[in-house]
Amino acid sequence: MDWTYVKAIGDILRVYRISTGNPQSRYVILDQLSKPTISRIENGQRVKEGNIKSYMDALGVTRKDLQALEECREKAYLELNTIDTLIATGELEKALTRLAMCDDRFFSAHLSYLKGKCYTRLKQPRKGIDAHKKALDLLPASDPLTPAICNELGLAYYYDNHFAEAIRITEQAIEFIASVEEPFTMLRPIIHINLTVYLDRVKKEKEAYLYLKQLWDQRDTILITDVNLNVHDMMMKHFIANQEFQEAKKVIYDALYLARINQKTDWFAVFWSRLGEWYFAQGQQQLAIPCLNNALEFKSHVRDRRRLLPIYQKIGEVRCACGLVHEATEAYRTGIQIAEEERDTIRKIELLVSYGKMLKTHEQLDHAKALYQEAMELARTSGSVEHEREAVYQMTEIAHLQNNDDFQALSQVMFQLEMKKRHAKGDLFDA
Predict the structure, then answer these.
(1) pTM for the full model?
(2) Where's it mainly located (predicted)?
């Protein structure tokens, strides 16, 4: 029997049974229809076709009743897909209004899932987290919507700067997909690239690369262009970091071409920034500058302002290397302001540390120290040990340069963080 049909019938019979005001136990038939079987039927799980017929007879569902409820269910399903399309176009308030008017007898978990998507994109991730948790509570564990909800819940946690939770729930989505026969062709690469990004954001590059390499090897089979471009971006970052410059250059130009032919204009700024980073990594600052200027030219096309943050950081670093301190300061301050507005804690930490390094180079030690202090406190709040270690290390250097009493205490903190890292037993975060 087709699973989609079983799921639909289960939904309809559950709604009909609830309308009678009776519990499942009211319809148990000794040696024929148990309460667990009824529960499986209503949850759309696989059962014998005869059990479904027995339950329909026990409920007294007529063909006319079934047809009427089938029509209501199909109408509700059509409305959910309409609302999901509105979310994709960014009409989030309209989507929430229509969700509030939906027939909630069917697809209640799906309704909560779509509300969560709206809230996350409206920069209300905590409401998104609550909605997705509710959706998971309403679903049986085996429901195929589970990995999509887990993916969106991970995204909400990520935007709320709860990186350990984002990683944990996204790993659960991957485990779910691995445990079932359904291929999840569209969803699988989305979940994998999201987990790659989350791991990379907290400086777990080795773990991130394991997922990235799988995606890279399968990039020709990835059907969603944005996911493919994200994979290209992560791979070029990896190549540059490992000084594999020829490989990086090829990926950058391939990505620019792919973005152009698919009119993905919101990626132009990212890839021109990567090209500037590529030149800068090889000491060619004068060639890096026009590439980064190009990135700024395309910033109005960037829908997610978080993508601008590494661009402003790289502009600050390149301008600093060229002796353009005032212009570099302007770039850093713009990036930090956007990070605050977008509540991107990790990017703000990285901007603060990079800005502090420039100030330290120009002997503005007290100002640099204040930036590192803020970065350290943010890192502790977000739970990223690697970022905390970097901030504390920079503060220790300043204490050494100033020959002040903080040096010993900061050295002890550095030692404790190093021991925390060494003693971690596979944990991504150490609280």
Answers:
(1) 0.87
(2) cytoplasm
Identity at 84, one-letter amino acid code: D
User: And the tokens for 71?
Assistant: 């029509």
Question: 160-199: per-residue pLDDT in tens?
Answer: 999 999 999 999 999 999 998 888 999 999 999 999 999 9
Residue with tokens 């799906």: 110
Please state at what angle helix 385-402 crosses helix 406-423, rounded to 10 degrees. Answer: 160
Can you read off the two tokens belonging to residue 57? Answer: 């007879």
Neighbour count for residue 348 (Cβ, 10 Å) = 23
Fold for domain 219-423? 1.25.40
What does each C-alpha distance from 360 to 62, 200, 346 come to in angstroms? 79, 27, 21
> Could you please report the per-residue DSSP string of 276-297?
HHHHHHTT-HHHHHHHHHHHHH
Tokens 């800005």 -> residue? 355
Where are the chain's structural domains?
Answer: 3-61, 92-188, 219-423
C-alpha distance from residue 104 to each of 4, 15, 108, 112, 185 (Å): 19, 10, 5, 10, 29
Cα separation of 200 and 4, whole Å? 38
In sequence order, the 6+-apart residues with CB closer than 8 A to the CB of 352 are: 336, 371, 372, 374, 375, 378, 391
Establish whether domains 3-61 and 219-423 are of one fold. Answer: no
Q: What is the CATH number of domain 3-61?
A: 1.10.260.40
SS3 262: coil
Of the candidates 75, 77, 89, the residue with the CA atom closest to the CA atom of residue 117: 89
Q: d(Cα 151, Cα 192) in Å, to the nearest integer?
A: 10
Q: What is the pLDDT of residue 422?
A: 67
Q: Domain 92-188 belongs to what architecture?
A: Alpha Horseshoe (1.25)
Helix, strand, coil fractions of the chain, as percent rounded to 5? 80, 0, 20
